[in-house]
């Protein structure tokens, strides 16, 4: 790839600067006019520059995006959604390379350049979803970097053979294996978690466990995960996704659990759904518990909603948690960018020399203004390539 210089941009809404890119890396950032631009030169006209957005919890394999409209059906419970999806996904051709590619293209158009993809692995679909997502990512030349979680949507212990599939997925390249509601789906939390941690240890992969269970049942499962994380030495390799119960507990219980999560090095991913209880985000931040934002599914058999714009999810997070000050609004954007590096296995994801050249330009006064307006992305650079301009893809 030729070298590229983005001139007159404002990293994180600060002073005007030029960002120099060579290959897929940012090589330098200088005050505008301080150094001679190299390679292709693009004038940012004073736009705010942010790192590419990171989707820390996504299901890009199971969307019907790009297909005819599918009306919502089935029962609005976790078990009901699972059953409905299993009944109709084959008729809709899920998973498909075309739909997965279309979803990744929407991510990219909105500035998402990295995602943690939870890919269904079960007795019906096998590992096909992983193959589909790999092909979709390749079709875009890796512009959206994907970290794959092998996800047992239909449960683990209640379907004999799923643990074996998850183990095979870890061998096939999944960087994490997933779990789901060990108590209410499998009704055997000890067996599910012990099976998952066994794979994680033997294959040296991460764990990412969906927890929808509420109240004390959810909190009990947090405790089981914390204990096993410590026992097996998996600190900084385990994530809880959703974890609605944390927001529902009394403040003292929240504080104690957050301290335990921090000590065990467990991270947290949320999609900030509007009717959920707010998380104790200040305690999570101050305890240095990594917190990531995700879109969840987009136009799938669970929900017709979603457009792939993680900046809008950050706005939902800000509204749900009552964020108002400039510092707090900027924090919400940081959750969708540089603070999410670990969710896609990066040490650094930011506008700094040495980082992958994932850059988004927005017409905004500052970062809080960009969050509350979610303006069209003026330019998206992914791995050093200009992939979108003025909201339209170029690849």
From TrEMBL:
This is Amidohydrolase 3. Keywords: Hydrolase. The keyword Hydrolase applies. PANTHER family: BLL3847 PROTEIN, CYTOSINE DEAMINASE. Residues 43-388 form the Amidohydrolase domain. NCBIfam families: PRK05985.1. GO terms for molecular function: hydrolase activity, acting on carbon-nitrogen (but not peptide) bonds, in cyclic amidines. InterPro entries: Amidohydro_3, Metal-dep_hydrolase_composite, Metal_Hydrolase, Metallo-hydrolase_Enzymes.
């Amino acid at each position: 790839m030729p070298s590229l210089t983005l001139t007159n941009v404002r990293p994180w809404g600060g002073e005007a600067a030029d960002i120099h890119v060579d290959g897929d890396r940012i090589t330098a950032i200088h005050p505008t006019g301080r150094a001679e631009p190299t390679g292709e030169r693009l004038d940012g006209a004073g736009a705010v520059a942010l790192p590419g957005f990171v989707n820390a919890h996504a299901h890009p394999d199971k969307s019907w995006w790009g297909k005819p409209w599918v009306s919502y059906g089935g029962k609005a419970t976790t078990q009901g959604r699972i059953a409905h999806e299993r009944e109709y996904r084959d008729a809709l051709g899920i998973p498909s390379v075309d739909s997965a590619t279309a979803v990744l293209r929407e991510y990219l158009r909105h500035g998402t350049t990295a995602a943690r993809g939870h890919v269904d692995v079960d007795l019906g679909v096998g590992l096909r979803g992983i193959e589909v997502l790999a092909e979709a990512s390749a079709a875009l030349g890796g512009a959206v970097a994907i970290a794959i979680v092998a996800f047992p949507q239909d449960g683990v212990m209640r379907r004999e053979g799923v643990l074996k599939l998850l183990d095979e997925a870890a061998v096939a390249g999944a960087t994490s294996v997933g779990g789901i509601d060990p108590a209410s789906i499998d009704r055997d939390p000890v067996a599910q978690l012990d099976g998952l941690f066994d794979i994680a240890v033997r294959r040296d992969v991460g764990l990412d466990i969906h927890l929808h269970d509420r109240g004390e049942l959810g909190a009990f499962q947090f405790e089981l995960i914390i204990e096993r994380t410590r026992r097996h030495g998996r600190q900084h390799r385990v994530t809880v996704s959703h974890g609605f119960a944390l927001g529902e507990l009394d403040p003292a219980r929240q504080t104690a659990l957050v301290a335990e999560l921090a000590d065990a090095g467990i991270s947290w991913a949320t999609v900030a759904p509007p009717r959920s209880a707010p998380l104790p985000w200040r305690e999570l931040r101050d305890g240095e518990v990594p917190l990531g934002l995700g879109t969840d599914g987009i136009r799938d058999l669970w929900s017709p909603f979603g457009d792939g714009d993680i900046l809008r999810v950050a706005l939902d997070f800000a509204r749900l948690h009552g964020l108002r000050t400039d510092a707090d609004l900027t924090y919400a954007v940081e959750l969708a960018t540089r603070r999410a590096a670990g969710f896609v296995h990066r040490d650094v994801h930011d506008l700094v020399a040495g980082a992958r050249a994932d850059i988004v330009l927005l017409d905004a006064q500052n970062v809080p203004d960009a969050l509350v307006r979610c303006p069209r992305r003026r330019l998206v650079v992914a791995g050093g390539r200009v992939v979108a301009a003025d909201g339209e893809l170029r690849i």
